[in-house]
């Protein structure tokens, strides 16, 4: 009995680690009503099903500094792209 469905693409094995350091952002747009922002960064590699990694949230700033390190598993270095999204946290 096959373990994987024949229609599912084969799972690629990791070939390495990508070390990423999120340092800072400058002059972000005001996203909150009171004229500030609560930014954080989401990091992921294209083609991954794993949830994105996230920095800590920096409250009430448009010039955040994180200095946070991340390791992402690379499975296909020729096709995978590092995606960084700066988001605003909302306490909803």
From TrEMBL:
GO molecular function, one term: lipid binding
Pfam families: C2
Ranges where the C2 domain occurs: 1-92
Record-linked InterPro entries: C2_dom, C2_domain_sf, Synaptotagmin_plant
Protein name: C2 domain-containing protein
Superkingdom of this protein's organism: Eukaryota
Stored PANTHER family: EXTENDED SYNAPTOTAGMIN-RELATED (PTHR10774), OS06G0685300 PROTEIN (PTHR10774:SF217)
């Amino acid at each position: 009995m096959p373990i994987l469905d024949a229609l599912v693409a084969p799972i690629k094995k990791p070939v390495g680690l990508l070390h990423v350091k999120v340092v800072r952002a400058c002059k972000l747009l005001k996203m909150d009503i009171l004229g500030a922002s609560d930014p954080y960064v989401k990091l992921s590699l294209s083609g991954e099903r794993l949830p994105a990694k996230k920095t800590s949230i920096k409250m009430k700033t448009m010039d955040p500094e994180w200095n946070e390190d991340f390791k992402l598993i690379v499975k296909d270095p020729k096709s995978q792209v590092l995606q960084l999204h700066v988001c605003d946290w909302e306490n909803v």
